[in-house]
Design brief:
By secondary structure, the protein is α+β, with helices and mostly antiparallel strands. It has helices at about 15-25, 25-35, 40-50, 65-70, 85-100, 130-135, 140-160, 165-180, 185-205; strands spanning about 100-105, 110-115, 210-220, 220-230, 240-245, 245-250, 260, 265-270, 275-280, 285-290.
């Protein structure tokens, strides 16, 4: 005699479906089968508009996309957000987006979601009087924190195969440096510059924005003395230069004549059809020219 004599196989259900119905219930089973579907991902993407004005955005359904969805829903970093790889995440996000106040839904215009302006972290958990509290109270700094969170999420995907993995450790070091801005005479300006430079650094290092190059410079009339540079459209503009086995990230400096980039111990200055490069602490200037 069959083990499941009363199973309704004759009514069109497979054995596994019947067991699932017994375990989940008909409603829960249907939800488990359909909630995290491609159609649902597309519907959520249409609702929250993850792509920019040029149509560029993360792959729908990817971890980067889910991070953006959490940000747009105003729940990123929340203690109650389920794991992104779980079915519960889809159910949670579905509930959150349906509960949000949406405008323009009956006009055919792109929907606008009301998201509380604030940083990517929970302001209720920060210490009063600190740098994080100051960011919570400043809408411009909060916007920079949200932008950095998005850029960092994109960089994390690119850094997935890094050996050794350095991005997380560097980010912890950057946060410590940002929080040291309390020592500055103008803490707000210090924090703003820290965010801008970190965002630009990640965008350049992980090729998250468009770049120009490579551009080759021959220095001091020696073909073997060559510097290679890639220029990136970040804010502030940046370049990544290589000389032999060493690499330097440089930021464009405001004002002055010509265009000057400054790194930790390196400079690249294009002025009146001549390029001057210094490489290393206390190193002499090299007079260079672009190679065709």
């Amino acid at each position: 005699m069959p083990l499941f004599d009363d199973c309704p196989d004759q009514k069109g259900l497979h054995m596994t479906q019947y067991l699932a119905l017994l375990f989940f219930g008909a409603t829960g089973f249907a939800q488990a089968q359909t909630q995290c579907s491609d159609a649902w991902y597309q519907a959520i993407d249409k609702r929250l508009q993850t792509a920019d004005a040029q149509g560029h955005g993360p792959d729908v359904g990817s971890d980067e996309w889910k991070s953006v969805i959490e940000f747009k829903a105003g729940v990123r970093g929340g203690a109650n957000v389920p794991e992104r790889s779980s079915e519960k995440w889809c159910v949670y996000i579905d509930q959150q987006t349906k509960a949000m106040q949406v405008t323009g839904s009956d006009t055919g215009k792109p929907q606008t979601v009301n998201v509380t302006p604030g940083p990517s972290y929970d302001c209720a958990k920060v210490e009063p009087g600190g740098i994080e509290a100051m960011i919570c109270e400043d809408k411009d700094l909060s916007a920079l924190d949200r932008k950095l969170s998005q850029v960092y999420a994109s960089a994390s995907i690119k850094a997935g195969n890094e050996h050794p993995p350095t991005l997380k450790a560097e980010q912890r070091g950057w946060i410590k440096g940002r929080d040291d801005c309390w020592k500055s005479d103008d803490a707000g300006t210090c924090v703003r510059m820290e965010y801008q430079r970190r965002i630009a650094e990640l965008q350049a290092r992980y090729r998250l924005v468009s770049g120009t190059g490579p551009v080759y410079y021959e220095c001091d009339g020696n073909p073997a003395n060559e510097v290679t540079a890639m220029f990136f459209n970040t804010d502030p503009p940046t370049l990544i230069a290589e000389r032999g086995d060493s690499v330097s990230l440089m930021y464009q400096q405001p004002g002055g004549s010509g265009i000057k980039y400054l790194g930790r111990n390196e400079t690249l200055w294009e002025h009146q059809a001549e390029t001057t490069i210094t490489w290393g602490y206390g190193a002499p200037e090299s007079h260079c020219k672009r190679k065709p």
